[in-house]
Design goal:
This protein is mainly β. The protein is built from five helices and 24 strands. The strands form six sheets. The chain has a six-stranded antiparallel beta sheet. The longest helix has 14 residues. The protein is elongated and about 100 Å long.
């Protein structure tokens, strides 16, 4: 049983029997060998019909052909695009002329399946997919869907790419492990039953002994989860009085209770998709580590504070958000998340990193 995807994106397989889209192709030489086995009644035994020279499947969507076995490799196919000759005789439209020209420009993406791995090229029509995103792409003869990392997105024509561009596969979609509906549900419940801190600037003062279940700023809602369960948090406003650097706000978020008998992870969660943000840079300083992003014209950064042991913080694979995967009780007062945000001016602006590193 095989599955594959036509160049037009239509999914196909060889599961049906008989299959209305499947064809067995015999060469003249092979067919003559088969007909020579006919008996006196000009009948050919079923078992005398050997394997076909190759097999073809016609896409019911675009009518193009995928022919398997032409190069004596049954696991590879050659793609033949369907063309209406009657239409060609009448003259192609401007759009059709362009699509058959070597000067047509495509939006393509170079992706890798492992760090420093070989790069592969896919046509990427989704304008929302950018460099550093993760995407789902078809791989191999059966077009198995795999997650890949986008290294580069650029415009290219056939002369810029060594591989025939009409045989390039297409990016299926952007990948994210963010569950939007679940996050919205958690935020709604925390708003209903907990205490929310609205903080878009420095107009809100926070008492040292106050705690909150959820925080809101211009990006969305934020909360802490210990072992996957929301917990109360303390919020401390960070000093941002340096004239050279400016942010809308910078805060330190830490658990309200710093003593835990069991620990698996401590994460800063949001109801908006950080995976969809454009990654800007690593933020790293002594005992502080994180990243910065840009989303909808806002630059923001998240860092974790570490201990001298420096082995308790890691980052989420797809979003690069730092989180704690270990907890050293002797250093619990140091642990917490620093967050800062401001309107995005340029990737070279160091303001966000300055206040949370």
């Amino acid at each position: 049983m095989g599955k594959w995807t036509c160049q037009c994106g239509y999914p196909m397989n060889d599961h049906a029997a008989p299959d209305p889209n499947a064809f067995s192709v015999f060469s003249d030489e092979l067919w003559e060998e088969i007909t020579d086995t006919a008996d006196e009644n000009n009948k050919i035994d079923y078992y005398d019909i050997t394997d076909a020279s190759y097999y073809a499947w016609q896409c019911p969507n675009c009518h193009s052909l995928m022919v398997f076995g032409e190069d004596e490799n049954p696991n590879c196919y050659t793609f033949y695009k369907w063309i209406d000759l009657d239409c060609k005789e009448k003259g192609l439209t401007d759009q059709e002329t362009d699509s058959n020209s070597s000067d047509v420009v495509y939006r393509v993406a170079s992706v890798t399946f492992s760090e420093f791995g070989e790069e592969y090229t896919y046509i990427c029509e989704d304008e929302s997919i950018r460099e550093d995103h993760f995407v789902v792409v078809p791989v191999g003869i059966n077009n198995v869907e795999k997650v890949a990392h986008v290294v580069k997105v650029y415009q290219a024509s056939q002369k810029d790419i060594s591989y025939p561009i009409d045989k390039l596969k297409r990016v299926i979609k952007r990948y994210s492990d963010f569950d939007k509906e679940k996050a919205k549900g958690i935020a709604a419940e925390l708003l209903r039953s907990g205490r929310c801190l609205q903080i878009n600037d420095f107009s809100k003062s926070v008492e040292a002994d106050e705690y909150f279940d959820i925080l809101h700023n211009k990006l969305g809602y934020w909360w802490l989860e210990l072992n996957g369960v929301p917990i109360p948090m303390k919020v401390v406003l960070l000093n941002t009085n340096y004239e050279k650097y400016h942010v809308d706000c910078a805060i330190h978020i830490k658990p309200y209770n710093m003593h835990y008998s069991t620990f698996q992870s401590l994460k800063l969660c949001t109801d908006f998709e950080i995976d969809a943000s454009r990654w800007v840079d690593v933020i790293s300083y002594e005992y502080v580590w994180g990243n910065s992003w840009e989303l909808d014209g806002i630059q923001f950064g998240i860092t974790c504070q570490e201990s001298l042991e420096e082995d308790e913080v890691t980052i989420s694979k797809y979003s690069r958000v730092p989180y704690y995967n270990d907890w050293h009780p002797d250093w619990s007062d140091r642990y917490g998340f620093n967050v800062a945000w401001k309107p995005h001016e340029s990737d070279e602006d160091l303001s966000v990193g300055f206040y949370i590193s």
